[in-house]
UniProtKB/TrEMBL annotation:
Pfam families: GFA. It comes from Apiospora rasikravindrae. Belongs to the Gfa family. Keywords: Lyase, Metal-binding, Zinc. Residues 1-126 form the CENP-V/GFA domain. The keyword Lyase applies. This is Mss4-like protein. Gene3D superfamilies: glutathione-dependent formaldehyde- activating enzyme (gfa). Coiled coil: none annotated. InterPro entries: CENP-V/GFA, Mss4-like_sf. It comes from the Eukaryota.
Length: 141
């Protein structure tokens, strides 16, 4: 049987150079693929039982919930909640966790904390891109 290829519902791809992503990834930056949260949330009981979660404040007064694998400790995805507790409609999945991810077109964010050079012509921002480009997703500091 031949595999069917379905369109990738990815909204955006970010290479975040903030110090939080540097620590979390153990590297120069963290890569996050932004997807609609529908279909993943609410988490199934089985998946929820396999994950740990910690929360931290965001730059804009909300909360970021960060899920990780309890077995290996790898950070898997995060979701931002507005200051009033409303969850955003997107989820940020760590790039290395997405099989077959198209790595092209990623935007480099939080370049003010960058520790490596990036190619000329790459889209870059000192902090966050304009809100409409972020699709309401907010990476770490």
């Amino acid at each position: 049987m031949r595999k069917r290829k379905f369109p990738d519902p990815r909204i955006a791809l970010f290479h975040c150079h903030c110090t939080e992503c540097q620590k979390q990834s153990g590297s120069a930056y963290g890569t996050s693929a932004i997807y609609p949260a529908a279909g993943l949330f609410p988490l199934s009981t089985q998946l929820d039982g396999q994950l740990g979660c910690y929360q931290r404040p965001t730059d804009r007064g909300g909360t970021m919930s960060c899920w990780f694998c309890r077995a290996c400790g790898s950070r898997l995805f995060h979701r931002v909640f507005e200051p009033d507790g409303t969850p955003r409609s997107t989820v940020s999945i760590k790039g290395g966790c997405v099989e077959g991810l198209d790595w092209s077109g990623g935007k480099h964010i939080y370049m003010r904390s960058a520790v490596v050079d990036i190619p000329e012509g790459a889209e870059r921002y000192d902090t966050l891109p304009p809100a409409e480009e972020m699709h309401r997703e907010e990476p770490s500091k």
